[in-house]
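User: Could you go from structure to sequence for me? I need the amino acid at each position, not a summary. Structure tokens:
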């Protein structure tokens, strides 16, 4: 009875950063909390919630969606180059309405069956969200949507500067080994560090690098850090991260543990017709191509990819977002190339696809990907070989793990050439060794998320942790030892 009461009293506000990849995995996380008997308020920005529309309908009476303004004009593009501006606007302009909403939810719930909010799980890239919660007496955790290996690299930034491994010259050898990230000394290269490390100076003044340094320092002070990962994939990296945090939970891949409808957190409307197209293709015959929700390429890069895919000779399904090819490029040339590719039913080009369904389809033989962490986990869970062409942030290090650590695919970073695309696609489709490694990892991941597996056990521990926080006396919350300043 006491355990049931604790679950009923626990009400978690989950607050992701307003990006597709962040919303995706935190939506699965919210579904897991609801499945464990907790109430969840999922907090979007107004802009994201409008884009979701009817897809944001609650799937449980214990899950609801709310939103706050992000402080930017409605017509602001909120594109990949605007990430720092968006997060800063949320911090400076969104924190006041966030504080007001959270305070009201803490005082009395809403009278509609939701108890008062007792805990906040905030995106680790938004430190203010955790800080505001603690300031008004609500215990908070942070959720990092990136891989453990990339978090470890961020934790090692100061060490990299001390060793003189960054910054490195723009014309320097990108294959020079990097020794300053523990556990990765034998395989990490300059080109595998987050792309912005190439732009930083002695003063570490690249805005993305500076944000990563500040965010990671904040995470170390948080009550706990949640990572969407599995011991079978990132055990060594996780072992180096854990001692640097107050507590840390490895609870993934969340999409495999707590499935939700594909549209539930999607800011893009998927072309469901692509599934019928896949139904008409032979087993393991199709190359699936998706570079995620933020990657932008030039018309020249698009052309190299297209020629390489056609030359490889396999049917392909390509996700080409409307905003993906640079706006200054020729729309007519792009349309002509797409039409040519789709002749004879050898290709299908769509604006967005239900990716988890696609990767689980029998017809898909390999995945050409930007190596975003969600995509990497989804491919790993299905045992699909990958060809990785990373764009930014943690994708560079993720792709190195795919090629050099797990052996589940090929790392094509820093190259956009039709001949290389053709060669790597063929190898990923035809290599028995890569496919065997991918399928072995998938079997291990399934064990991790099954009852009794490492991720399932960690999630159970996390739910207990949240329930314990939720039962704390309010005076204890207000006098928490959590320190906002270093």
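Assistant: Here is the amino acid at each position, in order:
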């Amino acid at each position: 009875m006491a355990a049931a009461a604790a679950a009923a009293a626990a009400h978690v506000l989950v607050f992701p950063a307003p990006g597709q990849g962040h919303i995706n995995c935190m939506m699965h996380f919210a579904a897991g909390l609801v499945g464990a008997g907790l109430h969840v308020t999922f907090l979007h920005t107004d802009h994201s919630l409008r884009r979701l529309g009817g897809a944001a309908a609650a799937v449980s009476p214990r899950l609801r969606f709310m939103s706050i303004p992000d402080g930017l004009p409605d017509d602001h593009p909120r594109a990949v180059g605007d990430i720092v501006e968006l997060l800063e606007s949320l911090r400076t302009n969104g924190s006041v309405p966030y504080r007001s909403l959270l305070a009201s939810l803490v005082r009395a719930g809403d009278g509609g069956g939701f108890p008062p909010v007792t805990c906040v799980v905030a995106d680790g890239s938004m430190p203010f969200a955790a800080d505001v919660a603690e300031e008004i007496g609500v215990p908070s955790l942070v959720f990092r949507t990136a891989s453990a290996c990339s978090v470890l690299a961020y934790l090692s930034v100061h060490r990299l500067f001390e060793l003189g491994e960054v910054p490195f010259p723009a014309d320097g050898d990108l294959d020079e080994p990097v020794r300053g990230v523990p556990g990765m000394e034998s395989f990490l290269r300059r080109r595998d560090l987050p792309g912005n490390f190439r732009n930083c100076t002695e003063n570490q003044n690249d805005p993305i690098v500076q944000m990563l340094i500040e965010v990671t320092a904040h995470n170390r002070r948080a009550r706990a850090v949640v990572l969407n990962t599995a011991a079978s994939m990132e055990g060594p990296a996780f072992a180096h991260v854990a001692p640097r945090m107050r507590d840390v939970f490895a609870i993934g891949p969340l999409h495999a543990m707590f499935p939700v409808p594909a549209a539930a957190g999607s800011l893009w409307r998927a072309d469901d017709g692509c599934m019928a197209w896949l139904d008409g293709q032979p087993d393991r015959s199709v190359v699936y191509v998706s570079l995620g929700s933020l990657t932008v390429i030039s018309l020249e890069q698009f052309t190299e990819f297209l020629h390489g895919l056609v030359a490889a000779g396999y049917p392909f399904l390509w996700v080409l977002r409307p905003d993906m090819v640079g706006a200054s490029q020729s729309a007519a040339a792009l349309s002509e190339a797409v039409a040519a590719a789709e002749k004879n039913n050898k290709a299908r080009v769509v604006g967005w696809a239900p990716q988890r369904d696609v990767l689980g389809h029998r017809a898909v033989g390999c995945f050409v990907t930007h190596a975003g962490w969600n995509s990497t986990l989804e491919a790993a869970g299905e045992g699909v070989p990958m060809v990785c062409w990373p764009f930014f942030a943690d994708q560079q290090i993720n792709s190195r793990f795919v090629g050099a650590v797990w052996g589940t695919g090929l790392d094509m970073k820093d190259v956009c050439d039709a001949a290389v695309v053709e060669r790597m696609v063929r190898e990923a489709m035809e290599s028995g060794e890569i496919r065997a490694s991918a399928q072995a990892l998938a079997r291990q991941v399934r064990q991790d998320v099954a009852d009794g597996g490492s991720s399932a056990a960690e999630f159970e521990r996390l739910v207990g942790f949240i329930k314990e926080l939720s039962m704390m006396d309010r005076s204890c919350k207000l006098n928490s030892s959590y320190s906002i300043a270093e």
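One structural detail worth keeping in mind: The radius of gyration is 22 Å.
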